[in-house]
Design a protein that fits this description.
Keywords: DNA-binding, Nucleus, Transcription, Transcription regulation. The protein has 473 residues and is of the alpha/beta class. The chain has helices at 21-27, 38-47, 122-127, 195-204, 209-212, 214-225, 237-245, 247-250, 254-259, 266-271, 276-279, 281-294, 300-308, 420-423, 438-441, 443-452, 459-462, and strands at 32-35, 50-52, 58-59, 65-69, 76-94, 97-103, 112-114, 120-121, 130-131, 136-138, 148-149, 154-164, 176-180, 186-189, 310-311, 357-358, 369-370, 386-387, 393-394, 410-411. Strands 2, 5, 6, 7, 8, 12, 13, 14, 15 and 20 form a ten-stranded mixed β-sheet that branches. A three-stranded antiparallel β-sheet has the order 1-4-9. It has a three-stranded mixed β-sheet with strand order 3-10-11, with no helix packed on it. The structure holds a DNA duplex (22 and 22 nucleotides).
DNA sequence: TCATCTGCCACGTTTGAAGTGA
DNA sequence: ATCACTTCAAACGTGGCAGATG
């Protein structure tokens, strides 16, 4: 794993010949981003990071936290995060490793998380690490809270976008710079599959402290007191194996065996018959992916896009494939194209845009009204939180105390019903190439906003327009 | 039958309102 | 009256568990 700060930049791409693009590109060429808690991320990555996703929404752990430098101190920037599928597969946890279980589910509504401080001057972003602590993940495709929707048992990677813009209305004229860190790749799960991950999380997450200490064990004891048939108790998959391997140790109370069974420690490697790669879903999974993907060479344009995104170089082989439209490049292991992806396009193509605003959790809850999914995007969406059930736009109207009146955070949804046909930018050109003005990334993005005009008086309205789409690669 | 998902639980942490004093 | 600080309760976030679901 190479240092995350070793950011690969690509400024050799001539900026499109549009106003302001050239200077923006130049001015932002020195922007550097590093991942905070990189070691922690790597610890998880070595095991195979899993992120719990729940219907009400779950925070990420480790949190997405970045350091920025090279920004213009007085220029304003917007920080965005989205999560992109690493590949087109669904995985399953089997015998200590992740295996390809089939073709990925159709993409859920795509949402982008806007850092609540946005927009803020470069000095603000650079003075301290930028945390995306409140970013939440959900598996509820009908989520109305604006959380980022993911599929369980699928692999994702966060992307961080920096946009120099005075406000959200300027975004489309601005240059996007996109960064990603290979060690932040994770598998979304509804329940932990790898016991090592659980342990690592409990050990590092203050909120889980109760489980590390008495709480869980006490509860477990209470449970056992009322147990009907202990041997029927379902064990964690790893624990089951561990019990076979170390029956005596396994039966110790959880917190006892925990301390001396640290993940990644040599002792663990030595003491556990399981191969190291068995703990690394990407060791195993990547092998699958390798096989799959190397047989699906990137197209020239795909490679170009890959090159234009600022990636942290990584041995993680899946990264290049983030732009790989596997449906266009069938591979032996990829199930035959069918359904929504059979055309090589995400499932939400040709579906009407659905957007809605909802208050941030921090804000006072406002009644949400259903918004017909057939509501055309060109309709002036009301400020009073229209809501649909397929995708929502989460706009926090409760701003940070230090910035009254400023949007707290925003999600940018593309609903499952959203028609990319409406955006109809070439899949490979919509996005993903940092250094490109936003309107070049997504021509329809601009078109839509222009279509709407600027009658919206706040960022919430602006947020109704998707900034990113999974279809872009 | 199995893999996965869901709701609930109890506990620690965080947050912000209320109280207090300078 | 204002500000800074402290206290405390409520809300939040967490992983485990058992049962439900497909």
């Amino acid at each position: 794993m190479q240092p995350s700060r070793d950011i690969k930049t690509n400024f050799g791409i001539p900026p499109p010949s549009t106003a302001a693009s050239g200077s923006d590109s130049f001015l932002q060429s020195s922007v550097r981003m590093t991942l905070e808690d990189s070691d922690l991320w790597k610890s998880f990555h070595e095991i195979g990071t899993e992120m719990i996703i729940t219907k009400p929404g779950r925070r990420m752990f480790p949190h997405c936290k970045i350091n920025l430098s090279g920004l213009l101190p007085y220029a304003k920037y917007i920080m965005l995060v989205d999560l992109v599928p690493v590949d087109g597969f669904r995985y399953k946890w089997n015998k200590h490793k992740w295996e390809v279980a089939g073709k990925a589910e159709p993409q859920p509504p795509c949402r982008t998380y806007l850092h609540p401080d946005s927009p803020a001057p470069g000095s603000h972003w650079m003075k301290q690490p930028v945390s995306f602590l409140k970013l939440k993940l959900t598996n509820n495709t009908l989520d109305q809270h604006g959380h980022i929707i993911l599929h369980s048992m699928h692999c994702y990677q966060p992307r961080f976008h920096i946009v120099q813009a005075d406000d959200l209305f300027s975004v489309r004229w601005s240059v996007f710079q996109t960064f990603s860190f290979s060690e932040t790749t994770f598998t979304a799960v509804t329940a932990y599959q790898n016991g090592k991950i659980t342990k690592l999380k409990i050990d590092n997450n203050p909120f889980a402290k109760g489980f590390r200490e008495q709480g869980t064990n006490m509860k477990r004891q209470r449970t056992l007191r009322t147990q009907v048939c202990p041997e029927k108790k379902k064990l964690n998959k790893d624990d089951e194996e561990a019990e076979q391997l170390h029956p005596a140790e396994f039966r110790r109370p959880y917190y006892e065996g925990y301390e001396d069974d640290e993940v990644g420690e040599p002792k663990t490697k030595e003491g556990c018959p399981m191969k190291e790669e068995s703990y690394s879903p990407w060791g195993a999974g990547q092998d699958h992916s390798h096989n799959i993907r190397t047989e699906s060479p990137l197209s020239t344009e795909t490679r170009e896009i890959y090159n234009t995104e600022q990636l942290v170089p990584s041995p993680a082989s899946y990264q290049p494939y983030r732009f790989h439209d596997f449906s266009k490049s069938p591979s032996p292991l990829s199930p035959p194209s069918s359904g929504s992806q059979s055309s090589g396009q995400p499932s939400f193509e040709s579906q009407p845009l659905d957007v809605a605003t909802v208050p941030d959790q921090d804000a006072k809850p406002a009644p949400l009204e259903p918004l017909s999914s057939s509501c055309p995007p060109s309709l002036p969406l009301a400020h009073h939180a229209p809501q649909d059930y397929a995708g929502v736009l989460n706009v926090a109207m409760a701003p940070p105390a230090t910035k009254p009146g400023v949007i707290s955070h925003l999600y940018n949804p593309y609903t499952a019903e959203q028609g990319l046909g409406q955006w109809n930018g070439p899949p490979h050109s919509q996005y993903g190439s940092s250094g490109y003005p936003a309107h070049h990334l997504h021509s329809e993005y601009s078109a839509q906003s222009m279509h709407h005009g600027y009658h919206h008086g706040n960022v919430a309205d602006w947020s109704q327009y998707p900034l990113f789409s999974y279809s872009c690669w």
